[in-house]
Design a protein that fits this description.
This protein has 169 residues and is mainly alpha-helical. The chain has one domain. It is built from seven helices and no strands. The chain is globular and about 55 Å long.
Length: 169
């Protein structure tokens, strides 16, 4: 393997590990009042999906003019596909249901991308993400859920941007 491929793989491995890290999810969930009629399990599940999607989206956006953009994207999504297969296998073993986790990631990605493409506020993509997130959680009018989706998106995007600026100079 060449040094360039090693660097791309290392960066993508770090980003995929960051994408599935749940630390930020827990802190965001604590901001949602438990008294509300919100299914926190659903919100946590969807936050985890949104974080993965946000990291992948941010990777492509931040490397838009990088000559190796496609290699980075392919490497990252291959890692997510492999992690998704593990999640799919574990969920089948524990529940007996065959859930294609990567397919769910792709479906959500398409929903969020569609919203981003329709958004009038190109300078503030989180304003397009939050409402879609809340709708997916079946709480489209709940400001706490909207803000939670926008927040995880912003955290992921800013972290990926900062990381890539350091690593791809």
């Amino acid at each position: 393997m060449t040094k360039e491929k090693d660097i791309i793989k290392e960066i993508c491995e770090n980003l995929s590990a960051f994408a599935i890290d749940r630390t930020d999810l827990k802190s965001i969930l604590t901001m949602i009042e438990k008294k509300q009629d919100i299914n926190l399990v659903t919100v946590e599940y969807e936050l985890a999906l949104l974080r993965i999607i946000s990291v992948g989206w941010s990777l492509s956006v931040n490397l838009e003019n990088h000559p190796e953009k496609d290699k980075f994207a392919l490497c990252f999504w291959d890692l997510i596909r492999n992690l998704s297969k593990d999640i799919t296998d574990i969920s089948f073993m524990t529940s007996g249901e065959n859930i294609d986790y990567f397919n769910i990631v792709k479906q959500r990605f398409e929903q969020y991308l569609s919203s981003l493409n329709k958004s009038m506020k190109k300078s503030d993509p989180a304003s397009a993400i939050g409402p879609v997130f809340a709708e997916i959680c079946k709480k489209k009018d709940n400001p706490f859920v909207i803000i939670s989706g926008a927040r995880i998106f912003n955290l992921a995007v800013s972290s990926v941007k900062e990381y890539l600026e350091l690593e791809t100079k």
